[in-house]
Known about the structure:
mainly alpha; HNH endonuclease
Amino acid sequence: MHEQHVFSARDLPYGTQLIPLAAIFVELGKEAHNVHVRDQIARWYWCGVLGELYGGATETRIARDVVEVVEWIRGGAEPTTVRDAHFAADRLFTLRTRNSAAYKGLHALLMREGARDFLSGVPIDIQTYYGESIDIHHIFPRDYCEKRGIEKAKYDCIMNKTSLSYKTNRMIGRDAPSVYLKKLEERNGVSATVLDDILQTHVIDVTSIRADDFDEFFEKRRLALLAMIERVMGKKVE
């Protein structure tokens, strides 16, 4: 799971999906070391997570996936889980807590895709995750949003959250992005260009966040997250 940047039980989307995953690796043996095979397994995994297919009664799906994923890797048809999976674009608006597998999945995906901490600038791997207490935090701070009448349904969903360290979140505080980004530049002695590069690893639109333009930021990030979802699932969102 570390390869997919799921580093703790708290952030594991589905414990039940580990059962077929382990069985698939056992069945494949050395075949699982092939990069193309691992890409196929990753696609199946993210279809299960983002399609939210392992949340109910899963016995039938587990048994079917073990057989079908192995057959697919060996030249057969796409497994049912890959075919069944779909992600509705509006689902992003309701991803607000770890109660959702897709919420935890996007947290992991951002780290997997190369998200770097705003303060340290280092990519988030397992060492950073534990050493710097990485968690899911607001990008436009909650207090800032509430004072400006931004509705909770928008500021508290995944579009306004990302993976950051405890120290970074403390530094952000209640400030507007334009203010805390300036503080980060001054504290770290980095240029705006360097910090902009870090922001982009979180699929954050630089122009809108620096202008404190929440609506523009929100829409640009919504589209960027959907593009990321399409990429890992290998299919269009609805």
